[in-house]
Amino acid sequence: MEFDIRLPIGLMFAIFGTVLATYGLLSDPSIYQRSLGINMNLNWGAVLLISGFVLLYFGRRAGAKS
Predict the structure, then answer these.
(1) Half-sphere exposure of 22 toward its Cβ, with a 13 Å CA cutoff?
(2) Please, which of 6, 26, 44, 54 could form a disulfide with 59 given CB 3.0 to 4.6 Å?
(3) Does the structure show a pLDDT above 80 at 65?
(4) pLDDT for residue 59
(5) pTM of this prediction?
(6) Which of 53, 51, 44 lies closest to 25 in space, CA to CA?
(7) pLDDT in tens, 29-56
(8) How would you class 7 by CB atoms within 10 Å of its CB: exposed for 0-12, middle for 13-18, buried for 19 or more?
(9) Distance (Å, rounded) from C-alpha 15 to C-alpha 29?
(10) Cα separation of 27 and 54, whole Å?
(11) pLDDT in the model for residue 26
(12) What is the CA radius of gyration of the chain?
């Protein structure tokens, strides 16, 4: 079995995305007035989480084929 870089990077993105999205959900909404009321922590946390899961999926799928 060869080392696939998508697995650790996907795990890192998924962990960072979870932390950032959780902070976005639990933080005070008044801090988002500078960004026109858009919760950027939640949005980018979701992007990182989805990217991490995609990388993990493709990394696991490639490992199962070999």
Answers:
(1) 6
(2) 6
(3) no
(4) 92
(5) 0.85
(6) 44
(7) 899 898 899 999 999 999 999 999 999 9
(8) middle
(9) 23
(10) 27
(11) 96
(12) 15
Buried/exposed code over 31-63 (b: 16+ C-beta within 10 A; e: otherwise)? ebeeeeeebebbeebeebbebbeebbeebeeee
Judge whether 59 and 1 are in contact, CB under 8 Å. Answer: no
Phi-psi region of 31 (alpha: psi -120 to 50; beta: other; left: phi over 0): alpha
Closest CA to 65 of 8, 16, 23, 2: 2
d(CA 64, CA 66): 6
- CA of 2: how far to CAs of 5, 17, 48, 54, in Å? 10, 27, 25, 19
Coil, strand or helix: which one is 36? coil
Other CB atoms closer than 10 Å to residue 21's CB: what's the count? 20
| Domain ranges for the chain | 6-65
